[in-house]
Design brief:
Blueprint (H helix, E strand, L loop, with lengths): L1 H19 L10 E5 L2 E4 H17 L4 E4 L3 E3 L4 E9 L1 H5 L6 E8 L2 E9 L4 E6 L3 E4 L2 E2 L12 E4 L10 H14 L2 E3 L4 H9 L5 E4 L4 H13 L3 E4 L6 H4 L2 E4 L1 H11 L4
Length: 260
């Protein structure tokens, strides 16, 4: 798996550094709207192409599930790619975005990479071998309760607006029971930060597989738990997630679902 991880790292660095070169140049970008509050730029598309080209040079028979291009190929090895997680931040000059790449082999997450080109931080994981930040082992925070905890989240939008009232009630409850909530706007980084102990817990509705795949493996390999928020199937399908170390995860999920 190390060779596969090395390839993912190379692809993530190439794409992330190329995207960073366009940061704060929104006036020169072709920015299109996919849906309300959802943008795509030629940077997303070019970064995605860089990732796919890099991987295909070494693994031409592998398949892809990528945000901009969808599913391509038929293989037991599927690369799940978000070339620019946090595009809305990117086009507004808000320096929080990342590249997320994961590899599934016969449906099992095996390799994960989240790369933050603005901070030059590289989060990596191999199933069974732990998670790292810039080559140093990381673990989820050791906090044992919600008291004093710092939470991450994302606001529901697009088709997930149906969750807004439920979400706002959850937001109020979490604010009342924790030290605070952060919403940076890039779910892949939120999950990586949780794996590194920078956040104690996280929840969100309606994420996509490319938002979740790499961060999920990071959290698991760092000793955390990520699950379907409402226990309604596979969170990779629903996109509704709750995550944290075992104690925080359980306490947060109980709090979030208390009146649902």
């Amino acid at each position: 798996m190390q060779a596969l991880l090395n390839t993912a790292v190379q692809a993530a660095r190439r794409a992330g550094d190329a995207a960073a070169g366009y940061f704060n140049r929104a006036d020169r970008l072709d920015i299109r709207t996919k849906a309300r509050n959802e943008f795509v730029t030629q940077v997303d598309e070019a970064a995605e192409q860089l990732i796919i080209d890099t991987i295909r040079q070494r693994y031409p028979d592998h398949a892809f599930l990528a945000e901009e291009r969808g599913a391509e190929g038929d293989s037991d090895h599927v690369w799940v790619v978000d070339p620019l997680d946090g595009t809305t931040n990117f086009v507004h000059g808000f320096p929080v975005f990342a590249v997320s790449i994961a590899l599934q082999v016969r449906g099992q997450l095996e390799v994960g990479v989240v790369y933050d080109p603005m901070r030059q931080e590289l989060f990596t994981a191999i199933r069974g071998a732990g998670a790292q930040l810039d080559g140093r082992r990381i673990r989820v925070a050791s906090r044992s309760s919600l008291e004093g905890a710092l939470m991450g989240t994302g606001f529901p939008y697009r088709a997930n607006a149906k969750w807004m009232d439920t979400y706002l009630d959850m937001l109020r409850r979490v604010l009342e029971h924790t030290a605070g909530i952060r919403r940076p706007g890039a779910a892949a980084l939120d999950l990586a930060y949780l794996a590194a102990g920078r956040l104690d817990g996280f929840w969100e509705f309606g994420l996509k597989p490319w938002d979740l795949a790499a961060g999920t493996l990071l959290i698991r390999e760092a000793g955390g738990i990520i699950s379907e928020l409402n226990d309604e199937g596979d969170f990779m399908d629903t996109g509704n997630v709750c995550a944290g170390n075992p104690k925080v995860h359980d306490a947060l999920k109980k709090l979030l679902t208390a009146s649902n």
